[in-house]
């Protein structure tokens, strides 16, 4: 218990001092996680929308596959992307391995099913009458989609929040594809793993606290956005 | 001609819910689609709104054959607008809801503003412009939904049971709005109802529907029960524990019957005795239906009786009074 309390106090002091090393780690984490969440949202939300909106053969199977992909281990994604971006991989010449870009690629694969399935669920829950109302009032297909999107906005926002939470907390992909290079690809989770290996429990807990604080901050921000958009 | 329908059908699975060989609706009129629940009224209305595709058949709208291509449907939907039985308003302000139609039609903002206020005035909801649409009562929602539909400047407005979920005050207001838009703006109005008095009040043109098919008159007093016969060979349909109605039929087993409300005789309760086939009950509602008086009599099941003004004046009945009903064999149709 003492260890936890000591670590906690030291963590607060470390954060208060705005240590340059910790700041760099936090910034890398935020940059990588925000980029992957943004890219996955830009692809996953329209994809989820299209799957929920359209009727086509194999739709149920596609949703089942996407649901299965939710359980994809980060290590598997790490290995998979590694095979492509390592020197011997087909994208080897692009020199992506052990870069932030490589982490982003892996993380996008990780959260794409989350964004897509959450979006499908959010759209499917929307009352059919919204779509019919928009259509009878003369809306085009795109305008109708806009109405449904607007009504499903809280569910879609939840998809984005869940995805961000998943990537900022993951360690496997960042470690395998980023390589934990200080100042370049060291994220909060890889730094925590490293500090733990070194027996530096205090710094690990400090970073854990930062991670939770950031998650809390992000959720507060989204909560604020939801409050603003609620009429 | 507004709508010219030929051999229209709608099938769900193995159930044919609509089967209309021919139906013509004229421009600028008010039509009431009248029929009991499950008669296909809503399905027909949704097909006429071009939101639902028929299984077979042809519709000619305003002299143009409907080909169901996306572009054509889009154009048609900008002329014909439907207000559903339980309309849903977008989760934004009342103003933005009413503004939706003009906005998707790219109407300039100042004109849009004028239209929204004019329509909200028409339905008496101007002071609610800034209110949250999802917090309105049922009657207010219905009125805003009508304003939202009218702001699209449609040529035809279709309404699915527009007053079924509203109180009497809103019912009167909505009926007045429908009359006004037809007379003042020349908009064709087609509405569904299972309320005969509303249909006659609002419209001189009534289309009766029963079991998905056009009918020559409204089927009312619909009951289900087994056919039984007495020692004399007279047949009855047992519609309730102790309620039997004399029928003329060769059918056996469970049947559906309809009792014509205009042919039911209302008699003083003293005229009924235990061995008689007369149904004794209490008058629970009396309504004036322009030329007729409708009495709702609870005999264990509600029976609707339509009396001419002369009949009513000759033997007036009061609400709450106990009366006996006599349903002659010819008043009962086995379906």
Structural notes for this entry:
The complex is a heterodimer of chains A (231) and B (335). Chain A is mostly helical and 231 residues long. Chain A has one domain (2-13, 20-229): Orthogonal Bundle (MetI-like fold). Helix content of chain A is 79%, strand content 0%. Chain A is built from eleven helices and no strands. The radius of gyration of chain A is 21 Å and the shape is globular. Chain B has 335 residues and is an alpha+beta fold. Chain B folds into two domains: 3-215, Rossmann fold, CATH 3.40.50; 257-334, OB fold (Dihydrolipoamide Acetyltransferase, E2P) (Beta Barrel), CATH 2.40.50.100. Helix content of chain B is 25%, strand content 36%. In chain B, the strands form four sheets. A six-stranded mixed sheet of chain B has the order 6-7-8-3-9-10, sandwiched between helices. In chain B, strands 13-12-11-14-20 form a five-stranded antiparallel sheet, with no helix packed on it. The radius of gyration of chain B is 23 Å and the shape is globular. Classes of the chains: A mainly alpha (231), B alpha+beta (335). At the A-B interface, α6 and α7 of A face α2, β6 and α3 of B.
């Amino acid at each position: 218990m003492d260890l936890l309390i000591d670590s906690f106090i030291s963590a607060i002091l470390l954060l208060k001092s705005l240590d340059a090393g910790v700041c760099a780690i936090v910034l890398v984490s935020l940059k990588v996680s925000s980029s992957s969440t943004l890219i996955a949202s830009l692809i996953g939300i329209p994809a989820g929308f299209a799957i929920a909106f359209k009727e086509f053969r194999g739709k149920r199977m596609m949703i089942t596959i996407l649901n299965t992909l939710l359980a994809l281990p980060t290590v598997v994604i790490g290995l998979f992307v590694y095979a492509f971006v390592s020197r011997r991989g087909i994208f080897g010449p692009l020199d992506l391995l052990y870069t932030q870009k490589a982490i982003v690629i892996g993380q996008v694969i990780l959260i794409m099913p989350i964004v897509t399935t959450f979006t499908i669920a959010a759209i499917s829950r929307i009352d059919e009458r919204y779509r019919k109302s928009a259509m009878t009032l003369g809306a085009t297909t795109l305008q109708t989609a806009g109405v449904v999107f607007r009504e499903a906005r809280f569910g879609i926002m939840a998809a984005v929040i869940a995805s961000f939470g998943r990537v900022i907390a993951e360690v496997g992909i960042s470690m395998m594809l980023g390589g934990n290079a200080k100042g370049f690809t060291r994220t909060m989770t890889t730094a925590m793993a490293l500090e733990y290996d070194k027996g530096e429990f205090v710094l690990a807990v400090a970073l854990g606290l930062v991670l939770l604080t950031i998650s809390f901050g992000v959720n507060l921000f989204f909560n604020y956005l939801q409050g603003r958009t609620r009429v | 001609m507004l709508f010219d329908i030929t051999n229209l059908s709608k099938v769900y699975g193995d159930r044919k819910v609509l089967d209309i060989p021919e139906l013509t609706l004229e421009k600028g009129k008010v039509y009431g689609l009248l029929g009991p629940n499950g008669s296909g009224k809503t399905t027909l209305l949704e097909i006429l709104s071009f939101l639902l595709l028929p299984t077979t058949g042809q519709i000619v709208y305003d002299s143009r054959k409907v080909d169901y291509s996306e572009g054509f449907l889009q154009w048609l939907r900008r002329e014909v607008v439907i207000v559903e039985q339980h309309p849903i308003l977008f989760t934004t302000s009342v103003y933005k809801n009413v503004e939706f139609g003009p906005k998707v039609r790219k109407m300039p903002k100042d004109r849009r503003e004028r239209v929204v206020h004019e329509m909200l005035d028409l339905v008496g909801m101007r002071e609610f412009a800034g209110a949250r649409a999802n917090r309105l009562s049922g009657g207010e929602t219905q009125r805003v939904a009508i304003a939202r539909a009218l702001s699209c400047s449609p040529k035809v407005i279709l309404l699915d049971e527009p007053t079924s979920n509203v109180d009497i005050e809103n019912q009167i207001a909505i009926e007045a709005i429908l009359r006004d838009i037809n007379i003042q703006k020349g908009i064709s109005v087609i509405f569904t109802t299972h309320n005969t008095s509303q249909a006659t009040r609002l419209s001189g043109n009534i289309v009766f529907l029963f079991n998905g098919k056009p009918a020559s008159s409204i089927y009312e007093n619909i009951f289900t029960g087994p056919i039984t016969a007495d020692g004399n060979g007279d047949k009855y349909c047992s519609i309730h524990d102790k309620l039997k109605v004399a029928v003329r039929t060769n059918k056996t087993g469970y049947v559906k019957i309809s009792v014509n409300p205009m042919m039911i005789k209302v008699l003083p309760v003293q005229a009924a005795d235990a061995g008689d086939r007369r149904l004794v009950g209490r008058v629970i509602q009396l309504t004036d239906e322009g030329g007729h008086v409708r009495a709702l009599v609870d005999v264990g099941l509600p029976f609707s009786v339509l009396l001419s003004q002369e009949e009513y004046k000759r033997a007036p009945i009061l609400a709450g009074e106990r009366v006996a009903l006599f349903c002659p064999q010819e008043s009962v149709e086995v379906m």
